[in-house]
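Protocol step 4 of 6: record predicted structures for both targets in the notebook before any analysis. Target 1:
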Amino acid sequence: MVSLDDIVQEAIDRQATDIHVEMDAPIYWRQGEAMVRSDSVFTRDILDEVYKRCGCQVVGCKNLSVDAACTCQGLRIRVHLYAVQQKVCGTLRLLYQRQLGLGDSEEDKLLKDLSLKTDGLILITGPTGSGKSYTLASCITYINQEAAKHIVTLEDPVEYMFTNDKSLIHQRELHRDVASMAGGVRDALREDPDIIMIGELRDRETLEAALQAAETGHLVFATMHTQRAITAIQRMISLFPGEQQEEVRNQLAQVLRAIICQHLTRIDAEFVTIRDILLNTTAVSNLIRQKKEPQILSVQETQKPMQTMEMAVHELESKWGRRQELREVLHTSYGTV
């Protein structure tokens, strides 16, 4: 009988990033851009094992939607279960930790420098599946190795598990440890943190709390779904009503440290991260205040280590040659500024 361990091990062997399941139907693997069908079938016994490992109560499939995480074969797995025509389906994302951390590339050196800031807001953005959580976890791992800090994370669900090294890390999960992300940030301010990590900025209340935390001398990491770095600025401002937007612009101009927007593509069986890098220099800060975000592109193009997505793609093209995968990244991110 096939078990959850068997399924996950096969996914690891295949270097799959996701496992797609449907009750009493064949299992599929996400391998690069392809969906590959396996000979194994997802059964009720495997579903019960998923529930047990995630600590979830078994419920009927009607209107089912469950977000959780578990550990299997030494790997953290993000689990999303949902209903399709009264059948339980799910996507299990494998969170590979074997190389969790920051390397010696110029971009990783920049992330190291940002991770040792003492205050402000650092955003890691990008579309779904672009490795935002991995980059964020790598930054936390680096801090844990290098600095004696108190780090509070707010996640939905907890994905990468950290072990205290030089830092003290408390990982809090939405709906288990905190009722809301915004409430969790406000709680964290009473917990003597140096660093607050927010799994995702999804709403105005959470963003307000994050800006307040950054204003009061804390370093705040967060993720957001955007295709470009500049789009993240526009998205944050648009979450507020018109009468508050000038105040928010001034807040962002003051507390924002960096926005790293990344896309993930696969070339010759290797995953390649492509980054749009925006640092909040004096020039960028003034443009945010003056409502001139489109002009930030020219600053990115001329002030290293900043770069636009086009610059990052063109640099990779010189290394890999012109590839359809790289042009797809630009096609995806066009039209968002």
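Target 2:
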Amino acid sequence: MKNDDNKIGNSIKQNRLACKISQNKLAEAIGVTHAAISYWENGVNIPNVEDCWKMAEVMNISIDELVGKI
């Protein structure tokens, strides 16, 4: 996946950094490995819906913001 095509991953990273949360802390908060966060941010994989909801809750944003719809 080209970086331009990784809208969800880029949005996860931007929102995570804006919240000043490390990949490790976000992973711990939603119950995944830090590698999973890295894979999502780099476009290797995409998160499932449940993990998106958890990330949005942790970062106190809407799921639309998380997936780059806004």
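Step 5 preliminary note on target 2. The chain has a mean pLDDT of 91. Residues 18 and 50 are 22 Å apart (CA to CA).
Proceed to step 6 after PI sign-off.
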